[in-house]
Amino acid sequence: MDDIDNHIRKTHILCYTFFVYLVILFTFPITVNAQVGIKIGTTASSFYYTGSKPTPYLGYDIDLRPYLGYDIELVQIGDQKPLFSPYISIYYTFSISQRIFVRSELGYIQKGVNFNQFDYERIIYKVKISYLEIPLSVTYQFIQKENSISEIYFGGYGSCKINSMKKVSSHNSSIENIKINSVKKFEGGLHLGINYKHKFFNDFFLIDLRFLMGLTNIFVLPDDWTSIYFNTQETKTTCINLSVGYEF
After folding, report:
1. Is 12 helix (H, G, I), strand (E, B) or coil?
2. Strands (E), the chain
3. Between 53 and 144, whose confidence is greater?
4. What are the C-alpha distances in Å from 98 to residues 24, 94, 102, 204, 232?
5. How far lies 11's CA from each of 17, 61, 132, in Å?
């Protein structure tokens, strides 16, 4: 019951945050120096690992058991595949010169990893972490035409965790959605992107491609974990985001 209440409370916080951001965006004057936009798309994400390997070394290139539980033990030896998930964001862009802009953004994103296997038997193992993400970017317009604009942008982002779940099924068992308690509340990193905008009357349609690289360890070792290894690798996220949008 407490988990349900916490999920409802987090959902309300997410909705209120989006509402406040929308109010702020549409309260600001939208002029030739500032634009408001929305993007919808998909994200392909996975994990990458830094630090020393587990000690003693037992043949695992990675070891996620301390964070995800013993049910990952054999699955993690298999291929790590991208997790595909939806993405939505709203943003506000302000001009500081003819070609240079600053952009703040607020979005919903899921990050994780996919260990699904179907070669010999049906094994489903997906890790999904939902975040409220706040990127801040510096944008440069390297193409400026009457009806077309192309931009390259870079910056950093901070992500606040909404929830974290794993989807597990093996040996043709039913799929279980299990909460993960070892994911940190905050994740941060860098991003780099490029987009193309085409003018439609007074507004723009756009397509956007962005790469994200996490710089922080997303897991914390649970207090009740019986330590087998002296060291575990740091786990970070990497993502590719493709989206389409509309800029007012």
Report:
1. helix
2. 34-50, 83-95, 100-114, 123-144, 148-170, 176-179, 186-200, 203-214, 234-247
3. 144
4. 24, 11, 12, 17, 48
5. 10, 36, 11
What average pLDDT does the segment 189-206 reach? Answer: 93
Position 4 confidence tier, pLDDT thresholds 50, 70, 90: very low
Residue ranges of alpha helices (H) inside 28-108 are: 65-68
Q: What is the pLDDT of residues 106-149, one digit of tens each?
A: 999 999 999 887 666 778 899 999 999 999 999 999 998 889 99
Pick the closest to residue 178 from 195, 165, 191 (CA basis).
165
Give the residue among 5, 17, 2 at the shortest CA–CA distance from 131.
17
CA dihedral 189, 195, 201, 203 (to 10 degrees): 10
3-state secondary structure of 123: strand
Domain with residue 59: its CATH number is 2.40.160.20
Locus of tokens 């004057």: 29
Length of the chain: 248
At residue 59, the pLDDT reads: 61
Domain housing 117: 2-247
Q: Please count the structural domains in the chain.
A: 1
Assess contact for 231 and 28: CB atoms under 8 A. no
| pLDDT of amino acid 231 | 64
